[in-house]
Amino acid sequence: MNGFEKVSYEQFSKDYESVRGTDINFTWGMTKSIYEGIKLPQRATKLSAGYDIYSPVSFALKAGDSIKIPTGIRVILDDDKYLAIYPRSGLGFKYKLNLWNCVGILDADYSSSDNEGHMWVKLYNGSPEGKTFQINAGDAFCQGIIQSYYLVDGDSREQGVDRNGGFGSTG
């Protein structure tokens, strides 16, 4: 079963409040109304590979600045899948908008972590022209592509330890 769903209101509220006051780029609002407005990822066209990921809040990102965005969503994946997150192509082209970690990888077991698999995205505006990137709540700002992966001979999905934790939790 592959799909997207919201994290709980409690998880979103905790994460959203953790960046409140630390990020001047956000247009801050009431947590409950922001949570209720979260849109689940969707494909824009019938042949789109990527699921557009929408910002729960409005923000402006000046050239040279970065921002951490708690999306309010998580992905549930089959064991042999992962979600790769990329900036939307047009935004990368127009603003040199990048993900801070280049490509975000969410493994299938990420959704069972203590943070409910809450997806965060950290963006960087590398615009050499000094352009400010403006996004409104509900606008698509990155995309996720569900992909299969393979194991080497002699390896199995039963090997290893169980995940517990968010980004970077496996070392």
List the helices and strands and how they pair.
Blueprint: E1 3-6, H1 9-19, H2 31-36, E2 51-54, E3 59-61, E4 66-70, E5 73-76, E6 81-87, H3 89-95, E7 97-99, E8 104-107, E9 120-125, E10 133-135, E11 140-148
Antiparallel strand pairs: 1-5, 2-11, 3-10, 4-9, 6-8, 6-11, 7-9
Output the keywords.
alpha+beta, 4-stranded antiparallel beta sheet, 3-stranded antiparallel beta sheet, 11 strands, 14% helix, 30% strand, globular
Structure description:
With 171 residues, the chain is α+β, with helices and mostly antiparallel strands. The protein has a single domain (3-148), classed as Distorted Sandwich (Deoxyuridine 5'-Triphosphate Nucleotidohydrolase, Chain A), CATH 2.70.40. The protein has 3 helices and 11 strands, in the order E-H-H-E-E-E-E-E-H-E-E-E-E-E. It is globular. The mean pLDDT is 88.
CATH architecture call? Distorted Sandwich
CATH level 4 superfamily: Deoxyuridine triphosphatase (dUTPase)
Percent range for β-strand residues: 25-35%
Radius of gyration: 16 Å
The strand count comes to: 11
The structural class is alpha+beta
Shape: globular
Q: Helicity level, as a percent range?
A: 10-25%
Mean pLDDT: 88
Ends apart, CA distance between termini: 28 Å
The CATH class assignment is Mainly Beta
Number of helices: 3
What is the domain total for the residues?
A: 1
Q: What string gives the helices and strands in order?
A: EHHEEEEEHEEEEE
User: Largest beta sheet, briefly?
Assistant: 4 strands, antiparallel
CATH topology: Deoxyuridine 5'-Triphosphate Nucleotidohydrolase, Chain A
Which blocks of ≥5 consecutive residues have pLDDT under 50?
Answer: none
Strands in their spatial order, largest beta sheet = 2-11-6-8
